[in-house]
Write a structure and sequence with these properties.
alpha/beta, Metallo-beta-lactamase, Chain A, 7-stranded mixed sheet, 9 helices, about 20% helix, about 25% strand, globular
């Protein structure tokens, strides 16, 4: 199994278009690397690729990744797209993939409802793009030799679906993780997660690779940096730091562990920060655009 991180950032990317925080300013100045919005490509044969979440930046991601280039006059090695939730930073890229080349879209019934209820997604020609329902805890094969099992993780509905009442740690079809298996190795992809209960820890135990939600360091990152009022919890993301944070809850796993979906305000993006050193000391890597992992 081979994985390429097409985009390592959370929604908005790095730099975010309207943000002048230290991380965004340093990214614009070339002090730290730029990052596009979260997406991963995976293959088992080096030819057919499955894209996990269609980032709004997917055109640039495909252009800068040679493995994603057209193999002929027209066409694409992208055989399918698998969605983990309905967030804009995970579905908007589908609109870019409308140029009359076939692929399959896999998502939960809740995800299919989102695509069906927004008529703009009608630009995906149904004669070429097949939308397929996936079921929690039921494996499917988007390409031969790659088995994916979706599983529920705590999270919330997409921002544009929020109503008067909101469960920030709902467990159901609205936010899923993906277990990837090729008969030899197992990798888990969880770019959005609101909490790490014991049952989730146990589910992730034993994988060879864990790509996990690294959105915020502290719950109040945005408040501390003066960039907004929303907490990590309000956005549906568990912080890295703290007694119930992902570092404390998951660092004992034997897997290779990588934080992905990193917000532009997260101090781990600074190469000399104490927070980044803490992440490394706990045995984690930090994803970056173009990162390649072979299992």
């Amino acid at each position: 199994m081979r994985l390429i991180v097409l985009g390592a950032a959370a929604g908005g990317g790095l730099p975010q278009w309207n943000c002048g925080c230290r991380n965004c300013a340093d990214a614009r100045a070339g002090v730290i690397p730029r990052m596009t919005q979260s997406s991963v490509a995976v293959t088992v044969d080096g030819s057919a690729w499955v894209v996990l979440n269609a980032s709004p930046d997917i055109r640039v991601q495909v252009d800068t990744c040679p493995q994603m280039h057209p193999p002929a006059l027209r066409g694409s090695p992208i055989a399918s797209v698998v969605l983990t939730n309905g967030d804009i930073d995970h579905i908007a890229g589908l609109l870019t993939l409308r140029e009359k080349t076939g692929f399959d879209v896999y998502t939960t019934s809740a995800g299919l409802d989102i695509l069906a209820s927004n008529t703009v997604f009608g630009v995906l020609d149904p004669a070429l793009v097949t939308q397929r329902a996936i079921t929690l805890d039921t494996p499917f094969e988007p390409v031969p030799g790659l088995r994916i099992t979706p599983f529920a993780v705590p999270g919330k509905v997409a921002l544009f679906l929020e109503g008067d009442t909101l469960n920030l740690e709902e467990v159901g079809e609205q936010t899923v993780g993906l277990m990837l298996e090729d008969g030899v190795s197992r990798a888990a992809y969880v770019p959005g997660c609101a909490a790490v209960p014991d049952w989730l820890h146990d589910r992730l135990d034993g994988v060879d690779l864990l790509l996990f939600d690294g959105t915020v360091w502290n719950n109040d990152d945005m408040q501390r940096t003066g960039t907004g009022e929303k907490t990590g919890a309000r956005m549906g993301h568990v912080p890295l730091n703290g007694a119930q944070g992902s570092l404390a809850r998951l660092s004992d796993l034997s897997a290779r562990k990588v934080f992905i979906h990193i917000n532009n305000t997260n101090p781990i993006l600074q190469p000399d920060s104490a927070e980044r050193a803490t992440v490394i000391d706990h045995g984690w890597d930090i994803a970056y655009d173009g990162m390649e992992i072979t299992l």
